[in-house]
Please model this.
Amino acid sequence: MQFSSALLENAVNEFSRLPGIGKKTALRLVLHLLKKESGDVQRFSETIARMRADIRFCQRCHNVADGDICSICSNSLRKQELICVVENIRDVIAIESTQQYNGLYHVLGGIISPLDAVGPDQLTIESLISRIRIEKTEEIIFALNPTIQGDTTIYYIQKKLQDLPVKITTIARGIAFGGELEYADEMTLGRSLQNRLPVEKYVRH
Model:
């Protein structure tokens, strides 16, 4: 791809570094910005820069937040005794889109995957266990992707919680094995939450 402007080429290269964005798509986005008013482009760039500089992670659940505690954790109308354990922030957004869940979350920041050199210590598992002890949580719902790695993570956390009086459930198998939560349609994901099962019936030991 040949460019008559180094500035244009640099902008295309930066956009193409984003996941799922190839050079052609990056060029289309950059040319779109060139057609916009300078004020609109300035506002766009300032919004991205401010997001990266000022965004925080909730000290309670590790979701993205504007302050120390996210808007979900600070909402007194949500069920404080119920925690949905997810892999990442995209899963929180996917579940919230169903409008079928009114509890809290805990973002692990990944799943146990020895092949990818991801162990329990690299996730927020100890934070979750400590939180359950302190907050006297009544139920945790595992909403992890239905894969071998997801099942391994559930099994590991379940063993860590075996001495605590907390109900442990998982979303139903409405999500196909090997699928990902963020790509599930809202109705399927919502039903999976409503029809959750005891974790013993789900995880392969």
Summary: The chain has a mean pLDDT of 88.
